[in-house]
Fold this sequence. Notes:
This protein has 340 residues and is of the alpha/beta class. It has 15 helices and 9 strands. It folds into 3 domains: 33-179, Rossmann fold; 185-252, Orthogonal Bundle (Helicase, Ruva Protein, domain 3), CATH 1.10.8; 262-339, Orthogonal Bundle (Arc Repressor Mutant, subunit A). Helix 11 crosses helix 13 (293-306). The radius of gyration is 24 Å and the shape is globular. It starts with 12 loop residues before the first helix and ends with a helix.
Amino acid sequence: MVDERVVAPEVDEAERAAEAALRPRRLAEFVGQHVVREQLELVLHAALARGGVPDHVLLSGPPGLGKTTLAMIIAAELGTSVRVTSGPAIQHAGDLAAVLSSLDEGEVLFVDEIHRLARPAEELLYVAMEDFRVDVVVGKGAGANAIGLTLPPFTVVGATTRAGLLPAPLRDRFGFTGHLDFYSSAELEQVLRRSAGLLGVDLADDAAAEIAGRSRGTPRIANRLLRRVRDWAQVRGDGTCDRAAARAALEVYEVDELGLDRLDRAVLRALCVRFGGGPVGLTTLAVAVGEEPETVETVAEPFLVREGLIGRTPRGRVATPRAWEHLDLAAPGGPASLFG
Ligand SMILES: Nc1ncnc2c1ncn2[C@@H]1O[C@H](COP(=O)(O)OP(=O)(O)OP(=O)(O)O)[C@@H](O)[C@H]1O
């Protein structure tokens, strides 16, 4: 159930290509995130005016909000190319040394999930960021020798969903940190209209609003839902992406008006109906919906908490009045229960 979630904020390899086609290429096309955009624009344009490289950039925020897109945009704005790697892809410090020593002057090195770099690679990286130098070890055992290599200036763009997990020495090497926040519905509508144009989909305004409202503040989810609505319109409808098509398509995928899917609603319903609104412990709640506690905690709960549908207390999870309202149920002790 979890792997196929249409509202998952993560992406798999198959979807990457579809996403790449929808990526804004320049800052001016990047929707929303006004503060980060303006700050970045200053950093980049000042570097361009000086003819040097900008400070290293750290982008933090939940998945699907545009960190990779911004990294590509930074390279484009600087008129340079980008090398892409990620924390988990770098097994040994030597792998990172090889990447660093092959960088051309002014290039951007994008390190996704930078908080997942192994400690030796992390140390190598912050020395390289500070001094544009990397020590390459040649040979093995007693005969091993470290040779210092000077690197041409370059810019690291690091992306992380967990800025707090970055060790201070690495975090401090970033001269600019931008935090990406969830998008408003109006911003997501703008993302959707732009994507629809690129996909050749005729998207009615009310359909854009309908999809945006169910996209959990995340452009990746908005674009994914748009593709599902387009499919529905082609197969079941007459190709028109209007509000009726959007509603029907998203019903097929069990995404409700708030953007909750089947698992989210199962958790909410169990909490309200089976446990009378809680408090109930995570494990008990997970057993009630037939999932692992970790799945409930990492997949369903963050959005339910963010939406103010459930609360976490020291004694367990509790349903808020909004949860009962969303499920169309009368809250215990509420006015409706006096009569029901
Ligand atoms: N501000 C934006 N304007 C337009 N489209 C956007 C914006 N932000 C993200 N997108 C689109 O959303 C999709 C996901 O963006 P991206 O891959 O950059 O997210 P991410 O934060 O790097 O996620 P992850 O960390 O999971 O890789 C892409 O198709 C991208 O084009």
